[in-house]
Amino acid sequence: MFYDILVYGFIQSAALILMAFGFSLVYGVSRLPNFAHGAIYVFTGFIAWALFNTVGLPYWLSVLLSILASGGIGVLIYYVILRRVRGMEVSEVIATYAIGLVFLEGLRYAGFRGGTYTLPVASDGVSFIFDVPVDHQRVLLMILGFAMVALIWLLTKYTRMGRALKGMAQDERAAMMLGIDSDATAAVAVALGSMLAGVAALIIFPLGSLVVEEGYKVLIYAIAVCVVGGLGSWAGTVIAAFVLGYSQYMTVAYGKPHFQMVVMLLAIIATLIVRPSGFFGKQKQLEERV
Amino acid sequence: MLEARAVMVFYENMLALNNVNITCPDDGVIGVFGANSAGKSTLMYALSGIILDIQHKERMRGGERITLFGEVVHDGEDITKLKAHQRARRGLVLCPERRRLFPESSVAENLSIGGHLATRAEAKETFDFVMDLFPALKKLTRRAAGFLSGGEQQMVAIGRALMAQPKLLLLDEPLLGLAPSIQHTVVESIPHIRNEREISVIVTEQYARPVIPYVDYAYIVENGSTVMEGTREELLGNPDIKAAYFGCG
Ligand SMILES: Nc1ncnc2c1ncn2[C@@H]1O[C@H](COP(=O)(O)OP(=O)(O)O)[C@@H](O)[C@H]1O
Ligand SMILES: [Mg+2]
Q1: Average confidence score pLDDT of chain B
Q2: Which of B164, B138, B159 is CA-nearest to residue B85?
Q3: Computed from CA positions of residues B122, B128, B133, B136, in that sequence, does the dihedral angle turn out positive or negative?
Q4: Which candidate from A170, A179, A180 shows the least CB-CB separation from B105?
């Protein structure tokens, strides 16, 4: 039982990192709370499904193209809509939420409902971790969860564009003075965030079935992780994903899986009451120093 | 050459800059002196294009209305409508008041983010130049910028601006809040920047005294208007100005 919780709690945490990291990245760089995040997650899943089943492409190509498509959707959303509302806090929320609704309810309207749509797993095998059986899709999930964080970290350290993201995240106006284009950089952030949502979807959906409602769930999970961790703080996002991932898995381990969502909502409410800036956000601290 | 022609800036109905004309020739070091709230930073924002971002953000959040008049002309081209990052690409780089370093990034990373517009070779060469200009930074490259002293931060801020390969560097109150010994190190860098990099400089300060030896020409700003201008000698020779701005030395 202990090892069960250890291993599956870890898997749940990695899943939360995958779901939340894109949201955190977009907010950190552009200060846009992307309420369409969950919709992009679901939409990417359906793009891959359609490319594979309807168009008949090989699965690896469907995966690749659907992730690229999610990035393209991110850029498009930024330039067509978000750029015009960026800086108007209420409109940011309304606009991104509306975009999400269009995607999700559009899919539902087009007839994609119920549990009949599935994506294939990467491999059927099972491995044992501390004698706990774990299927290969979940092993992949763990690996990719951390690989994505590492990849983005390397990007911000070693590429020009990544450093621009990092500069923008800390002081947008100072970045502009150095020749960094705020709109282009924000668009890149939204594209990367959307692609991360896409990667998450393509790893997590094969564990169940493709359903539109997942979009709302993923959005709430992502928000919970980011609020608890401190919006825009990477370390906070990862730590919060672990705290919440293990808490969520406890509810499963003790036979009350329907409390998973309750855990997340309570975490959001408790954080907003006790410490609105999040438990691990360091931005605040540094701001006060300077 | 950079010229401000009849520049006016209103914050709502408050006139922060009133019909300001300024010229900075290539290779020049220009001083802009004035008391607190005279409009120095507003002028720097107008020259660098940051004012357009301030105006845009205020409009988006439903804040104050900022109105701009006049022109900014760079090398014969009207750049009044160009955004800050586009002006930076033309070589107009602002090192802002209170430095605005990236606090969580190390000194080295602040400099490399500053090198956004530089080629790899330029970035490397400029990095070395900055380390020679401010040897105190050599030991601090891995330190988070948020934890440096004011003087160290100012050196990093100037270095970061240089990384952007400016042709004209705008320095807004670089000495603000620094101890006199550090002030000396910072102003001393101005002639090096001009002579070794062929960068012209516009520097603002509240107190002209530490900076005046390094400028060719200066403007005195009061309540948003230039009330006096002249070469260094002309200003030093004027007894009223001397008493008011140079701390009667
Ligand atoms: N964003 C702003 N909104 C309203 N008034 C401002 C703003 N920025 C500056 N001011 C006012 O404009 C005047 C000039 O300010 P500033 O350019 O910062 O002067 P300085 O840099 O010389 O101290 C001051 O009276 C200041 O209060
Ligand atoms: Mg000022």
Answers
A1: 95
A2: B164
A3: positive
A4: A170
Of the ligands numbered here, which is closest to the C-alpha atom of B97?
2
Per-residue burial over A66-91, b if 16 or more Cβ lie within 10 Å, else e, is bbebbbebbeebbeebbbebbbeeeb
3-state SS, residue B42:
helix
Q: Read off the pLDDT of residues A188-232 as tens digits, 9 standing for 90 and up.
A: 999 999 999 999 999 999 999 999 999 999 999 999 999 999 887
ipTM for the complex? Answer: 0.95
Helix (H, G, I), strand (E, B) or coil at A98: helix
Instruction: Show residues of chain A in contact with B96, CB under 8 Å.
Output: 173-174, 177
Contact A202, A67 (CB under 8 A): yes
Rounded to the nearest angstrom, the minimum Cα separation between A236 and chain B is 14
Domain that holds residue B139: 2-245
Distance from CA of A282 to the nearest CA of B (A): 9
Q: Which ligand is nearest to the CA of B175?
A: 2
Q: Specify the range with the lowest mean pLDDT, choosing from A10-14, B176-180, B244-248.
A: B244-248
Residues with CB under 5 A from ligand 2 (ion): B 40-41, 97
CATH code of residue B36: 3.40.50.300
Candidates B61, B95, B112; nearest CB to A88: B61
CB count, 10 Å around CB of A216?
Answer: 16
What's the total number of domains in chain B?
Answer: 1
User: Which contacts (CB < 8 Å, 24+ apart) does range A166-170 have?
Assistant: A166/B102, A166/B105, A166/B109, A166/B113, A167/B102, A167/B105, A167/B113, A167/B116, A168/A29, A168/A30, A169/A28, A169/A29, A169/A232, A170/B102, A170/B103, A170/B104, A170/B105
As a whole number of angstroms, the distance between CA A233 and CA A240 comes to 10
b vs e for A97-120, b when ≥16 Cβ sit within 10 Å of the residue's Cβ? bebbeebbeebeeeebeeeebebe
Measured between CA atoms, the residue of chain A closest to residue B92 is: A177
Quote the pTM value.
0.94
As a whole-number percent, the residues of chain A with pLDDT over 70 amount to 97
